[in-house]
């Protein structure tokens, strides 16, 4: 039997994901076999395992921190929102079906056997399992048949650490209010409180901490400072969307309503001369050096959104002068049309941006696979990344075919595009690919930034393109070092029932 500890939060974005990752790293450093687990994740950032199964990227990040290969049993249920009231439900890495929120709420208890089965699989090799909750355990309207917070803790008899976010204010009310709304049995599971994202002198908090402990009857086991880390975060409440121009190289990512897998562009944020901005309007767009169209959970809807707010027209005009690169759904948008005969998104067909000579038909079955190879010969500004090796994964519902004239006819549907990167022969600035993680290879990111710098006639400092995986490993170590300093790890090991390692 693995030892278990669970991290729950007073709200979304309290810092649960990073704290779980940090604890996984600490336990790994201390010689334990450790694995992360989240029974149900709602996210549009997803990953494909070696077996071709889909899981949330937060658990992939935590698995990296733990030093183990990501497995779908770490995240048996993934909800990918398709609109404001419904999601695609993915169970054990495979699509079950789309459900409304009301339908899923009534159905989710049927998934408890799958959650238990996934957890038992982790127990086969892990000494410690660190579980992440979702949102808040005090959402009283959602507590019935809960499978991700206290319901999950009860399933596996897990002690709980409760985390509050002081950076957003009201942390004492967050923590105390949550404890007050828990049932007696649930409150007894809470063994420690953590105040997260603190800026300033901790002594200022001491009177509040004393009162919190007296009223809540639960010890505060750490005040964790606000950390500047370059690690992946969940996709809804992220601060990276607020950056302004300032770098020598200005890269824009279009932030449509159903943006997915924006982690594709994280590597560019690690280059000092580069600013990566996420924009939602023509006013914010400006005249960047490169525009990325990212993945989308509703490609047709997000293309209509760009068409209605003027971004499509602005991007098409800019494409005459600067490169535009679409990934997955963004790649589909750049083509001449998107057909949805099975109503997987919105049904019918829609004209594309007509910047790439391709057409897409949305299929019933999702393609999920890891891929590797070398980039084909490219023309245009990014010809320098031709023949660069890559590793990544595909995850899409569309079948995309080449059609040079952008005049779709039935005969083209028989041939599937084999290129890993497609470019426009007529417009040397436009590129597209289905491959997520394409840029994580430092030589590819380096080549793209160098090409942009050459076009502007500026010099990029040599030696800044560190291997991205090495860079992330250093970030995990930095996270663990900070948590060791500000959390009472001896108490945490006592909660686990393990002897503290000196």
Write up what this structure looks like.
- The chain is an alpha/beta fold and 502 residues long.
- The protein folds into 2 domains: 254 residues, P-loop containing nucleotide triphosphate hydrolases (Rossmann fold, 3-Layer(aba) Sandwich), CATH 3.40.50.300; 208 residues, Rossmann fold (3-Layer(aba) Sandwich), CATH 3.40.50.880.
- Helix content is 30%, strand content 26%.
- It has 15 helices and 24 strands.
- It has a 6-stranded parallel β-sheet, sandwiched between helices. A 6-stranded mixed β-sheet has the order 15-13-16-18-24-23.
- Strand 19 and strand 20 form a beta hairpin.
- Helix 1 crosses helix 14.
- The longest helix has 19 residues.
- The two termini are 24 Å apart.
- About 2% of the residues have low confidence.
Kindly summarize this structure in a few lines.
It comes from Defluviitalea raffinosedens. This protein is of the alpha/beta class. The protein is built from 15 helices and 24 strands.
